[in-house]
Structures are given as structure tokens and as C-alpha cells.
Design brief:
Belongs to the LysR transcriptional regulatory family. The protein is of the alpha/beta class. It folds into 3 domains: about 80 residues, Orthogonal Bundle (Arc Repressor Mutant, subunit A); about 110 residues, D-Maltodextrin-Binding Protein, domain 2 (3-Layer(aba) Sandwich), CATH 3.40.190; about 110 residues, Periplasmic binding protein-like II (D-Maltodextrin-Binding Protein, domain 2, 3-Layer(aba) Sandwich), CATH 3.40.190. About 35% of the residues lie in helices and about 20% in strands.
């Protein structure tokens, strides 16, 4: 086997199929026809002398021998991007493509705020946005499948750079006519744990809500799969919940109230419950300078009602 049988483009094809588990969608991402992509992957498999994928009529799976090959392909592609960054004179600035992800409870509400300034300052930067849960996104980040993540800090940052951006308070979301509607000076102690609605396990916001209310993880009860379902459960009168500030309003500042059925109220009594939102990327990324510039931009343009943060403010 010689290096002449390998190409970076073929490795991009392999990684795309491994991530999307679909040859057609992988071909669309790589801007190539599906027959061409399939043929090149077959050729690469012949060169390597092994099958990378298990192909069925329903899905595409990585073979056991294919998993380490794809992992190493990501490393090779990452190093190739590092080489190009050094060669094009960008000096670590953001150029080309940036794969930016966010946790489910943040992305839909923060992306509309940050896209206009990003497009204005880096018009030639190609943004690829995605969402997921914290653990899965950090795994994708470490594997090189994404470049940076917007999530709640702190996180295990071995090999990563974690820059805090802002503190986002939680508001109480309760249905109109709820017993707390007329309560002055709302405190966390006013909540009834039995009526607290939560996201299902695996969402960091669930753990943050439980911690804010001084509760331990609990099973049973009714849980929502996403923040919008949680909001509608509140509107239906099923209970109340802690809602991140950005999720309570539109980009224009209007209230996301599900037809006026949900009321949002801030907590009194000192610092409100909330979360620290930060930007995380690999410490080895050659665009460290540009990613720090991105963090500074996001910090300076924090949405109304949030508090910009400096690094030393995160424990």
C-alpha cells in the first residue's frame, strides 16, 4: 500500500458518510454525485483492504475495523486544515468553513442574535450550524467533527479552551391563573417541587433546574423531550418550570407566550438562578486567534437581560 492511493477528498467522503450514515446526504454535503462518492469510497476500501461500512437497505453502519480508520481520517483532515491555515497567511484568523454547534436549549434562541454580526464581520466564512446535547457535542468536538460549541459551563476542558460569554438567568414559567401569579418578591422557595416540569435525562438544563431548586435527580413524573414541548406543557396547565431567558422572548424582544397562556417572572432575593454560556473549542485548533475573536464578539453583543462575563468569573 502506498500513499498514492489516498487523497484528502476521499477521507472527507468517508467522514461525511460516517457522520450522516447516508450516502446520498454525504454526497450533498461534499457537493458530489452519489455514484462518484460511492465509487471513491469503494476504491479506498480496496486500497486499504478492508470494508469501512456495512451497507444495508435501511442504513449504513461503520464496521469494527472502519471505526479507527474514520477516527484517524478526522485527525488527518484536521491537520490538513492546520497546514492550510499556516499556508494561506491567515495567522489563525477565521477563514473557510466553521462548524459551530450549540446545545438544544440554546441554539434556536441564540443563533438569531449572533448570525447578523457574524455574517457582517466574516462575510466569506461558511457557517455550518448544528445542535445536540452537551456530552455528544463535546465528543464530536474532540473527534474533530465540529469546530466550536456553545454550551453551559463549566465542562471537562482537558484539551479544550472554554471561554465564558455571558450569564443567562432563568425565569419562572407558569400558566396564566397559577397560584403564584400575584405573589410579590418571587423566590425559589415558593415553588412546589411536585409541580416542577423538567426536561428528560441527558439535558444539562434539567440538572441545572434541579440544582437551582435544591433538588436531587428524580425519576418518574412527566418529562419533556425539548424546550418547546416543555413550554406547551406549561401552557396546558401541567405545572411550571425554569426557562432560560433567551427562550422566553423573540429576537425582536416579544414574549414567547404560546398565545398568552404562559407568564414569565424573574426571581427576587439576590442573584437569580441561571447558567453561564460559553464557547468551547479544541486547544490544538490553529484558528485559536480567530476563535478568541469570535468569543469576544459574542461577549460584546450579549442579548439584553444577560450579563457579559470574563474568564475569571467561571469556577
Amino acid at each position: 500500500m502506498t500513499l498514492a492511493g489516498l487523497s484528502l477528498r476521499d477521507l472527507e467522503y468517508v467522514v461525511a458518510v460516517a457522520e450522516l450514515r447516508h450516502f446520498g446526504r454525504a454526497a450533498e454535503r461534499c457537493a458530489v454525485s452519489q455514484p462518484s462518492l460511492s465509487a471513491q469510497i469503494r476504491k479506498l476500501e480496496e486500497t486499504l483492504g478492508l470494508a469501512l461500512f456495512e451497507r444495508t437497505s435501511r442504513k449504513v453502519l461503520l464496521t469494527p475495523r472502519g471505526e479507527p480508520i474514520v477516527a484517524q481520517a478526522r485527525v488527518v483532515l484536521d491537520e490538513a486544515r492546520r497546514l492550510m491555515a499556516l499556508a494561506d497567511g491567515s495567522d489563525g484568523r477565521l477563514t473557510g468553513r466553521l462548524r459551530l454547534a450549540a446545545i438544544h436549549t440554546l441554539g434556536p434562541y441564540l443563533f438569531p442574535h449572533i448570525l447578523p454580526p457574524l455574517r457582517s464581520i466574516w462575510p466569506d466564512l461558511t457557517l455550518i450550524l448544528s445542535e445536540g446535547r452537551t456530552d455528544a457535542l463535546l465528543e464530536e468536538l474532540r473527534d474533530g467533527r465540529i469546530d466550536a460549541v456553545l454550551l453551559a459551563l463549566p465542562v471537562e476542558s482537558d484539551g479544550l479552551v472554554a471561554e465564558p460569554l455571558f450569564f443567562e438567568p432563568f425565569l419562572l414559567a407558569h400558566p396564566i391563573g397559577h397560584r403564584l401569579c400575584g405573589t410579590p418578591d418571587l423566590l425559589l422557595g415558593d415553588l412546589d417541587a411536585g409541580e416542577l416540569l423538567l426536561l428528560e435525562e441527558g439535558h444539562c438544563l434539567r440538572d441545572q433546574a434541579l440544582a437551582a431548586c435544591g433538588l436531587t435527580a428524580r425519576g418518574g413524573g412527566v418529562h419533556a423531550t425539548g424546550l418547546e414541548t416543555l413550554r406547551h406543557m406549561v401552557a396546558a396547565g401541567a405545572g411550571c418550570t425554569l426557562m432560560p431567558l433567551l427562550a422566553t422572548r423573540g429576537v425582536d424582544g416579544s414574549t414567547a407566550g404560546v398565545g398568552g397562556l404562559v407568564e414569565y417572572r424573574p426571581f427576587d432575593g439576590g442573584k437569580p438562578p441561571g447558567r453561564v454560556v460559553g464557547l468551547v473549542w479544541r486547544a490544538s485548533d490553529p484558528r485559536d486567534r480567530g476563535l478568541r475573536e469570535l468569543a469576544d464578539l459574542l461577549r460584546r453583543g450579549t442579548p439584553a437581560g444577560t450579563e457579559p462575563l470574563l474568564s475569571q468569573k467561571v469556577d
